[in-house]
Write a structure and sequence with these properties.
By secondary structure, the chain is α/β, with parallel strands linked by helices. The protein contains 17 helices and 13 strands. Helix 8 packs across helix 9, helix 9 packs across helix 17 and helix 14 packs across helix 15.
């Protein structure tokens, strides 16, 4: 009997060893998706079904704290393998957390060919890609066709330029008594960035060393914003949450915010008013040029096996059929080159032409300002305070905009 026990024990140990060898590599994925979490989970499940040797453990984090948590975790040596982070924070995170360059993997980042070039530049720093787009948005005009009719405006003609936007907002205010417009600031600095860059200005120098946005046209765009708030009183200047609720309730004529809000706006306004969608207005006759909103994925894996598994996960997410499906389900922009011509995108646009307005703006997308150094939040607050001062009429844009530019340059120099 004892002679039998030894071989049986050896076999048992061998079986345990085999089971342990077959255990999947687990990677941790932090993200901030809420309304789209079910779609994201389904995509992750599809990946794991096709890659049984990898397990993706997804974890929701509050978007307001996610970057801070990633930075703290990285300093403690326990960062997630991959995280979804606002793209305007990527350069600061590269400087402060040392993420993995996406072209350092076994295939040298071959999967990045599945990303449109103007989207890919958003995650590039000093010639290397550190972030790949995942949930990108572009600003569009949401408008209340019923209020347009009540104000004597053509409900089929949203504003084409910011100058037209001001005039339509003024007419809505005069003829209906309701606010004409709400412009989302998008987390402190997105709204002013979009207006400024759309005039042809750049927020930062090419080497990220200083702010460069106080151009004559940019100052004029900020003055227009002030004039709508102070002179015309057509701009709603309540909190972001209050303005959004008022628009959905039919109390504001137009709302400028990301396409990421489209699915929610469509649901919220159904039965309340007829929702129209228009392109982000141009500045005079200049070509449309809009910084992206939304998030990119960054890799922090220090373990070789988890890093390789993470690259495989990203390669899967970047496959055009996967990224196009995610765009249709979530309402974010598709990111693949030529995605506008993909059959699934064309079918989705034919079914919902209003979403197609955002898809048509893909080629107009430019990189959002990626604030460098360690004082990113303070930089964002400078722009937030500039906007508040404009809305309150504390000083003209000709004073406030150059002052904000100088302060941001000072903060960059101190935080580098």
């Amino acid at each position: 009997m004892r002679r039998l026990l030894a071989p049986m024990a050896a076999l048992a140990l061998f079986a345990v060893g085999q089971a342990q060898a077959a255990d999947p590599v687990t990677i941790n994925f932090w993200h901030y998706q809420t309304s789209n979490r079910e779609d994201l989970t389904r995509t992750i499940d599809d990946f794991m079904a096709k890659n049984p040797d990898i397990k993706v453990r997804e974890q929701f984090k509050d978007n307001n704290n996610l970057a801070t948590e990633v930075q703290a975790a990285a300093l403690a040596g326990r960062a997630p393998d991959v995280a979804q982070l606002l793209s305007r924070l990527t350069i600061g995170l590269v400087m402060n957390t040392k993420p993995v360059a996406l072209d350092s993997g076994p295939d040298k980042g071959a999967f990045l060919k599945n990303v449109a070039p103007n989207f890919l530049t958003i995650g590039t720093y000093q010639g290397h890609p550190y972030a790949v787009p995942h949930s990108f948005g572009t600003p569009i005009v949401y408008y209340n066709k019923d209020l347009f009719r009540a104000a004597g405006l053509d409900p089929q003609k949203p504003p084409r330029t910011w100058q037209e936007m001001r005039e339509l907002a003024r007419q809505i205010k005069t003829n209906t008594g309701k606010h004409g417009l709400f412009v989302s600031t998008g987390g402190r600095d997105v709204g002013p960035q979009q207006m400024i860059v759309n005039t042809g200005a750049d927020m930062l120098s090419a080497d990220f060393s200083r702010a460069t946005f106080a151009t004559p046209d940019a100052i004029a765009s900020m003055q227009l914003w002030q004039d709508m708030a102070v002179t015309d009183k057509s701009l709603a200047v309540f909190t972001e949450r209050e303005n959004t609720s008022l628009f959905m309730a039919g109390q504001i004529g137009m709302m400028v915010t990301s396409v990421a809000s489209f699915q929610g706006a469509k649901r919220s306004t159904e039965g309340v008013f007829e929702l129209g969608i228009g392109h982000y207005p141009t500045w005079n006759d200049k070509p449309r040029r809009v910084p992206n909103s939304g998030a990119a994925l960054m890799v922090f894996s220090q373990d070789e096996k988890r890093r390789e598994a993470t690259f495989r996960f990203l390669a899967y997410l970047m496959q055009p059929e996967v990224s196009n499906r995610w765009a249709v389900e979530s309402g974010y922009l598709p990111i693949a080159p030529g995605a506008q011509q993909a059959e699934v995108i064309k079918q989705a646009v034919a079914k919902e032409p209003r979403w197609g307005v955002a898809v048509a703006q893909m080629d107009d997308l430019v990189a959002t300002a990626r604030w460098p150094g360690s004082r990113v939040v303070e930089i964002q607050i400078v722009l937030e305070n500039m906007v508040q001062a404009l809305w309150q009429g504390k000083a003209p844009a000709s004073e406030l905009v150059p002052a904000a530019e100088a302060e941001i340059s000072r903060l960059i120099a101190q935080g580098s």
